[in-house]
Design a protein that fits this description.
single chain; alpha/beta; Rossmann fold; Arc Repressor Mutant, subunit A; 2 domains; five-stranded parallel sheet; four-stranded antiparallel sheet; 8 helices
């Protein structure tokens, strides 16, 4: 699942991004309201986490722009402003939840998971399936032909990305930015090694093979028709 964090406090933004990434989410981070609104309009997210006090556009304006664009993405406000009128304003503008700083990350993570389940219409929407491969996003479990497959956090995030975009050839640069949050370096083989290890767990001993290399382009997960 993919989350957009719009937070101008450097430490808080980095902390959120690292924590959510380690929890298995794909997280983007915008530092001001204008960038946050542009990200939200141009990409598909399962959840937006918005600070209220932002440079450029404030959180209220970002949320208003998102809703005016016809996007129903769940929104969690994360802010130091705890006045009742602020909470009411956020909810009236179309926010789904409101968490006041300082916060416990465990509580934030519980709310994130609740909102992403709600946004995707229930438990069924949290299980991805391709052929006999299943990825349970709630329980953080992978299985193939009914057998459990143990994955690291990065392997889980990589497999989720491939399954969500099944049939689409994903270049190494995109995989690097989405899963490792880094610019792709053509001199490193980190992506190839990670895909090879994942393929060993997902495809070795199974038919049909699901993870394929498209020479000179990238990787794709798809089942033969």
């Amino acid at each position: 699942m993919k989350i957009l964090i719009v937070e101008d406090e450097i430490k808080t933004g980095d902390y959120l991004k690292q924590g959510l990434t380690e929890a298995g989410f794909v997280a983007d981070l915008a530092r001001d309201g204008w960038d946050g609104l542009e990200f939200a309009r141009s990409q598909s997210y399962d959840l937006l986490i918005l600070d209220v006090m932002l440079p450029g556009l404030d959180g209220w304006q970002v949320l208003d722009g998102v809703r005016r664009a016809g996007l129903e993405t769940p929104v969690l406000f994360l802010t130091a402003r705890d006045a009742v009128e602020d909470r009411v304003k956020g909810l009236e503008l179309g926010a789904d939840d409101y968490l006041v700083k300082p916060f416990a990350f465990a509580e934030l993570l519980a709310r994130v998971r609740s909102l992403t389940r709600r946004g995707r219409g229930g438990i069924e929407a949290t299980v991805l399936r391709v052929a006999d491969l299943e990825l349970d996003l709630l329980r953080r479990r992978a299985s193939r032909a009914g057998g459990r497959i143990e994955l690291t956090a990065k392997e889980f995030a990589l497999l989720e990305l491939l399954m969500r975009r099944q049939g689409e050839v994903l270049p190494r640069s995109l995989i690097a930015s989405q899963v490792w949050d880094m610019n792709f370096d053509s001199d490193t083989n980190v992506i190839d090694v990670a895909v090879r290890r994942l393929r060993g767990k997902i495809d070795d001993g199974f038919e049909p093979k699901l993870i394929h290399t498209v020479r000179g382009m990238g990787y794709v997960l798809e089942a033969p028709t």
